[in-house]
Amino acid sequence: MFRSTPVASLLALTLSAVLVGCGSDSGTGGAKPATQVAVKVNKEEISVHQLNDVLARAGNVPAEQVKQASTAALERLIDQELMVQQAKDRKLDRDPKVMQSLEFARREVLARAYAEQVVGTAARPSEAQISAFYDDNPGLFSRRRIYNLQELNIRIPAERFDEVREKLQAAGNLQQLAAWLTEQNIPFTANAGTKPAEQLPLEMLKGLSQLNPGQVAVSRTPTGALLLFVAGVRDEPIDRTKARPFIEQYLLNQTRTELAKAEVARLRGVATIEYMGDFAPASTPVAAAPAAPATPVAVPAASAPVAVPAADADAVRSAIEKGAAGLK
Q1: pTM
Q2: How do beta strands 44-47 and 145-155 pair?
Q3: I need a surface site. Which of 27, 104, 152, 190 has the fewest CB within 10 A?
Q4: PpiC domain: which residues (predicted)?
Q5: What is the DSSP letter of 189?
Q6: Any idea where the domains of the chain sit in the sequence?
């Protein structure tokens, strides 16, 4: 289930070498060779395979820290084993809640293992696909920007989205909009910070990359609306060579996701699924309609964003913070 990595292999080899050097206890008779057992805790053994599994999950460990990582991982396994033994002594492994949790974990591991086997067949993207993605997303690469943003996340019913957008158009800036939201007792949260292009949703970035400092973008969210005031930007492009590994991994992950979804759909199609009891009305579930992409809409129109005077920037942030505080 877990793929081997060069670091994991190095950890395993280092650990094996250490254990081989330890030799075996002449009094153990038919006990397992030392190369298979890392440590004995009371009468229970912790194997090298168990330790290797923990190390493989640790991710990238610098070569000079391999021995330290091995020792720390082994000590954690010893602590865990001691608690497991106490749990068994107290019959906790027979507790209904514990048994239910163990079964849930078993099902999760099995399902994940199958999913990883399915997505493991995903083909890596071609050079043409990588190049096309680079060209199709200049906001992420050739025209990449670092954005200084002030966010206003508004909780409203979907039917009030147009009302908020029109109010922003009439107000002309976030300061007046924040005051109006406070008057209307409409909850909202405010945040400000710096975000590179890659930390923004792809669909949102396409609209945001067209805005200049002092302009506002508004987009739909599952809970209402998100307003972004562009306080400042700076250009930091990424060339094709540096972007290549990131694009390749993104496209590969996208393919894996599609494979997983397709396999679930196939399995549902060939399975017999009966909803029982209170769940019977949902015997033929209807797939939810996909949410509309959160494409920013510049205010008052896509071609004419609302410009906020630079002098108002501090006042905007202050008004937003005060408005949010007033709703607490």
Answers
A1: 0.60
A2: unpaired
A3: 27
A4: 125-235
A5: E
A6: 6-24+32-90, 129-238+293-326
- Three-state SS string over 31-89 comes to CCCCCCEEEEECCEEEEHHHHHHHHHCCCCCCHHHHHHHHHHHHHHHHHHHHHHHHHHH
Strands (E), the chain: 37-41, 44-47, 145-155, 188-196, 216-221, 224-235, 297-298, 300-301, 304-305
Amino acid occupying residue 271: A
Torsions phi, psi for 225 (to 5 deg): -145, 150
Largest Cα separation within the chain, whole Å, is 88
Q: How crowded is residue 319: how many other Cβ atoms within 10 Å of its Cβ?
A: 20
What b-and-e string marks burial along 79-116, b requiring 16 or more CB atoms within 10 Å of the CB? eebeeeeeeeeeeeeeeeeeeeeeeeeeeeeeeeeebe
The size of the chain, in residues, is 328
Would you say 46 and 38 are in contact if contact means Cβ atoms under 8 Å apart? yes
Read off the tokens for 89: 């002594």
Residues 184-204: b if buried by 16+ CB within 10 A, e if exposed? eebbbebeeeeeebeebeeeb
The tens place of each residue's pLDDT in the chain, 328 residues long, gives 444 444 444 444 444 444 444 444 444 444 545 468 999 999 999 999 999 889 888 877 788 888 899 999 999 999 999 999 999 999 999 999 999 999 999 999 999 999 999 999 999 999 999 999 999 999 999 999 999 998 899 999 999 999 988 888 887 678 888 889 999 999 999 889 999 998 887 777 888 888 889 888 888 889 999 888 899 999 999 999 999 999 999 999 999 999 999 999 999 999 999 999 989 875 455 554 444 444 444 443 333 343 333 334 344 344 334 433 333 3
What are the two backbone dihedrals, phi and then psi, of residue 266, each rounded to the nearest 5 degrees?
-65, -45
What CATH number belongs to 129-238+293-326? 3.10.50
Residue pair 323/315 in contact (Cβ under 8 Å)? The answer is: no
d(CA 131, CA 134): 5
